[in-house]
Structures are given as C-alpha cells and as structure tokens.
Specification:
Strand order of the largest sheet: 1-2
Order of helices and strands: HHHHHHHHEEHHHEEHHHHH
Low-confidence stretches: 264-276, 497-507
Radius of gyration: 26 Å
Number of helices: 16
Largest sheet: 2 strands, antiparallel
Helix content: over 70%
Structural class: mainly alpha
Shape: globular
Length: 507
C-alpha cells in the first residue's frame, strides 16, 4: 500500500477516537455511565467514522501517476482494508453493541452477581445474533436461487464460497449492501434532518421540542420533590443531616442542574453557572455561529443539487432502468460535485480534502439528526438525546443507527460524484476522462475499490440500486421539509423562558 498511508491512517484513527470520545461525553449522563458501555460506544463510532475516511485514500490510488498493475495491486489492498473495517462493524453491530446494551440493563439489579448479569446479557445477545445470521443466510440463499444460471446445487455453491476468497469477499459486501438497504430509512430521515436542519440551527438557533421540555419539567419537579422529602425529614426531628443524605442531596442537585442546563437554550444564558453569558463571549460566538451556518447552508445546497442532477440523469438516461438499478454508462449532465473535485485536483491534495470534508459533513449531519429527533422506531420516540443527560442505552442505539447508516453512506457516495469517485482524475489512453464505458485492459481506466464494490452489489441485485435511487428522492424532499421545520421550531422557541430557578436549591 502507499507508504504515507501507514502514517495517515493511524493518525486518522487516533483523531477519530478523540473526536468520538468528546461527542459521547457531550451527550452522556455521567451518573449512569459505565466504563465498558462508554468504551463500546466510542469504539463503534470510531470504526464507523474511520470507514468513511478510507474513501479519499481509495480515490487517490486510482488518480495518482502509476502503472495499471500497481494501481490494481493497491486497490486489492484497499479492498481488504474495507473488508476488515466493515467486517468489524458487522461484528460490533450483531454482538458487542447488543451485549453492552443488555449488560447495562442488568446493572441496576444489585442482588445479582456480575457473572449472572453477563450470562443473561449473553443469552439475549445470542438470540439477536442468531436471528441476524439466519436472515442474512436466508437472503443469500434466495439470491443464489434467483441468480444461478447453471442450476448448480446450493451445497456446491456454499462450498465454493467457503473456499474461494473472491466469493467470500462478495458475501461480505453483500451483507454491507443489505445493511445499506436497511439504512436507507435512517439516511432518508436522520441524515436529511441534519443536512436541512443543521445550517438553520446555527443561523436561527436550535430550540427544544414540546416533548423534550415536558420531560425536563417533569424530571425537575421530581428532583425538587426528592430534595424536599430529605430536608423535611430532618426538619421535623431537628437532627443534623447525615453524610449519606448529604451525598444524595448533592447528587440530586447535580442532576437538577443538568436538567435545567438542558432547558436553558437562551442565547444569553449559561445553564451551568446560572448567570448570563459575558457580552464579549457573545460578540465572538454569535457571529462565528452565523458564519458557520451560512457555510453549512451553502454545502447542503451544493450537495443536494449534485444529488438532484445525478438523480435526474439516472432516471432519464439509464438504458435499462430498474432492471439494472438505474446504472448509466456516462453522466450526460454536469454534476457540480464532479466538476468541483476535478477543478480542485489541480492543487494537490485539495480534491481529497474536499471529498473527505463532504463525507464527514454527511456523517455529522446524521448525528445532528439523531440529536434533534431522538432515537425513534417509526414515529415512536424511544429516547431523546439531551446534552449531559442522555442514557447509555440511547447512545448504544445511536451507535447502531450510525453503523447501519455508514453502509448507506458508503453506497451513496458513488452517486454524489459518480465519475470522480469511480475513476478519480484518470484519463483513458484516448485522452478522455474515464467513465463506465471504458475498460481497464483496453482503455487503461482503473476503477476504484468502492466503485467496484458498488457495481458488484447493484449489478447482482438491481433492486438495491432502485432502493438507493428512491431513498435519494425521499432524502432531497425531507431535507427541504426539515430546513423549514428548523426555522419554525427556532422561532417558536425564541419566546420560551428557561426553567432555571436557583432559589429552590435551598428548599
């Protein structure tokens, strides 16, 4: 592999760990946190983010000046790296994350031993793992029946998969394709919420929903009631408060501060100290937030326009339509993202920085969407995500959603800039930019590993390509809706007064 990648990839992994650690700490309730649960969340999110950062390296390999054989050799190594990362993500998704979830659920029972809790969590995890494997194997066998042309037996085909490295690799990326199809619902809702809502939140402020306010108000009233019960017990007897109850009062006070801090979204209010933010801090932070919001709005519009043009091109110029997953030989319309990356490629390594920044922006948009909407199944909210006040179970579900969504992001990147992501800045032997109509052996155009995987998955199961095209259409529509909803939510929240009332602390 490329020499400098041996330094760049570990540095990216370390940076991802640090970034994800602070993201988790931003949301996690410190009182409910456990070291094992926190480690699983940080590790899983790190692998998900790291999987996104491999894509620019993949495109660089096919863009550099090297022989076809050398590019293909490095591409095989990058494909193995994809296998390792996405294989690890799959393992985390079906075993480690569920185990951490069930183990944390058992942690509140002080009457049971640690070994008993571990055994119970392992049993529940085994059920999920068995169901996931059964669904995957069943889908794989159905795929074999539908695509087999020589009527070969299933047993013979399974033996071939187990002994043939290329077949086994395809099976792994078939699982990634299945998770990507499942993740289109997460992509269409949460990522679109971030793409449309995150710029507006920075420009107009991020207000809280009525459900979140009601939950914080109920919790605040409960904490005040618990404080009053403890103090009234000692007020009747005149005894001095015991050390144990003093610690409990302090714990309740901290939890109440977190609840009040979560509700204090006024721009001039600091919920941690209960005082107004200094004017000089507001003078710096507020314009910087507005400027960042404008930049993010430009990025969101640019990405959505690129996807819209690519979608129109696929729907109108694909010769085989849904029968081949709306694949086209060559983009007939100029896609802005392709053009921008080709222009910035003249200044190394700006094109790879732009591509990496776009992918990270989409990853961050998903996290923003999860923070705004909370963890939901259909329209039912399971957990809200509140700053310093989120349960570990909620963060574990956020991790699960993020892993699945990364698989969708992996597939959708090839439609954001189809020509550049597939072939980089390569030109064929005839001097034309490489596209799907060119061949490696005849025209000297080496396809990137991500494009090769996308073609293999969509080409084998065209229904996957149809699902991705449909999800892109839904994504674009919901992005506009969430942008409007974010502005309306911020306006409604502007008139809300924070619940912070520090006078009740001494009740």
């Amino acid at each position: 592999m490329l020499v400098w990648a041996a330094v760049l990839l570990p540095a990216a992994a370390v940076a991802s760990i640090i970034l994800m650690y602070f993201v988790v700490k931003h949301f996690q309730n410190a009182e409910e946190a456990q070291p094992f649960t926190t480690a699983v969340i940080v590790l899983s999110l790190t692998f998900a983010l790291f999987a996104c950062l491999i894509i620019p390296l993949d495109v660089y390999n096919v863009s550099r000046n090297a022989s076809i054989e050398e590019k293909k050799a490095v591409r095989n190594q990058i494909q193995q790296l994809y296998c390792a990362v996405y294989g690890t993500l799959t393992l985390l998704l079906v075993t480690v994350v569920p185990f951490a979830y069930f183990l944390h659920e058992e942690a509140d029972d002080p009457s049971r031993t640690l070994s008993s809790k571990v055994c119970t969590a392992a049993r529940f995890t085994a059920v999920i793992t068995i169901v996931a494997v059964a669904l995957f194997v069943g889908g794989l066998l159905v795929y074999h029946r539908l695509t087999s042309k020589d009527n070969s037996s299933t047993t013979k085909w399974v033996q071939t998969v187990l002994h043939d490295t290329h077949q086994a690799t395809f099976v792994l990326f078939y699982s990634v394709g299945c998770m990507a199809v499942v993740g289109t619902s997460i992509w269409s809702v949460y990522t679109s919420c971030g793409v449309g809502g995150m710029p507006m939140a920075l420009l107009f402020g991020l207000g809280m929903s009525a459900a979140e306010r009601n939950q914080l108000e109920e919790e605040r009233e409960l904490l005040i009631h618990q404080q009053r019960v403890i103090r009234s017990r000692y007020a009747r007897t005149g005894d001095r408060i015991s050390e144990k109850d003093m610690r409990e009062l302090e714990r309740l006070r901290r939890r109440r501060s977190q609840a009040e801090d979560g509700d204090s979204d006024d721009e001039d209010w600091d919920g941690t100290t209960g005082k107004s933010t200094p004017w000089w801090v507001r003078c710096i932070v507020k314009p910087a937030g507005k400027l960042t919001g404008l930049c993010f709005l430009a990025v969101s519009c640019f990405l959505c326009i690129s996807w819209l043009i690519g979608l129109v091109d696929q729907l109108s110029h694909s010769s085989c339509g849904w029968h081949c997953g709306f694949v086209i030989e060559k983009p007939t319309k100029g896609i802005p993202m392709d053009a921008l990356l080709l222009i910035t490629s003249k200044v190394f390594p700006m094109d790879f920085v732009v591509l990496g920044a776009a992918i990270l922006y989409l990853f961050a948009s998903t996290l923003h969407g999860l923070a705004v909407l909370g963890v939901r199944v259909l329209w039912f909210q399971l957990f809200p995500l509140l700053r310093k006040h989120t349960a570990p179970q909620a963060l574990l579900l956020v991790t699960t959603y993020s892993i699945i969504n990364v698989c969708t992001l992996f597939m959708q990147t090839t439609t954001l800039a189809p020509q550049y992501v597939s072939f980089g800045t390569q030109s064929s032997l005839q001097g034309q930019l490489c596209s799907n109509m060119h061949e490696e052996a005849k025209d000297g155009c080496v396809r990137s590993a991500i494009s090769k995987i996308h073609v293999a998955v969509v080409g084998s199961l065209p229904i996957f390509g149809t699902v991705f095209v449909t999800s892109t259409l839904v994504f674009l529509g919901l992005s506009i809706i969430f942008a409007i909803a974010s502005v309306v939510r911020a306006r409604q929240s502007a008139s809300h007064k924070p619940l912070v009332d520090w006078g009740d602390d001494d009740v």
